[in-house]
Design brief:
This protein has helices at 11-20, 40-44, 47-63, 65-79, 85-97; strands at 5-7, 25-29, 32-36. By secondary structure, it is mostly helical. It has one domain. It has a 3-stranded mixed sheet. The chain is globular, with a radius of gyration of 14 Å. The structure holds zinc ion. This is DUF4157 domain-containing protein. It comes from Hymenobacter rigui.
């Protein structure tokens, strides 16, 4: 499975991490996955997380950078982070596609998986 560019210690992901109040964050910008608070190796160990971000890569390709970002921010304000349609799709895609990124290993259980940030807005 071809992975996109992965950027560790990304300043963009650091801003998102602060906004979400999360320990670690992965976020997609265009065709790259930006990480903060998590190394590339740690990120790749969670195939659910990788599959989630790969769905955002697909969404970026479908809507374009500006189209994605405008919809994402609009829907965040309308629905709250957890209910942004792009996030709902990405959570569903994680369950469906995690096996593609498991690298031959068993899928991690709930305790080993990266939790979805729980934010109010
Ligand atoms: Zn997401």
């Amino acid at each position: 499975m071809q992975l996109p560019r992965i950027v560790e210690n990304s300043p963009f992901a650091r801003v998102a991490r602060a906004k979400l109040g999360a320990t670690n964050v992965a976020m997609v910008l265009g065709n790259s996955i930006h990480l903060s608070g998590v190394s590339r190796a740690q990120f790749l160990q969670d195939p659910f997380w990788v599959a989630h971000e790969m769905e955002h890569i697909r969404q970026f390709q479908q809507y374009g950078r500006l189209g994605f970002l405008i919809r994402y921010l609009r829907d965040w304000m309308r629905h709250g982070y957890y209910n942004i349609p792009f996030e709902v799709e990405a959570r569903n895609a994680a369950e469906l596609n995690a096996h593609l990124y498991a690298q031959g290993k068993p899928l991690p259980g709930p305790a080993e998986r990266h939790p979805t940030p729980k934010v109010k807005s």
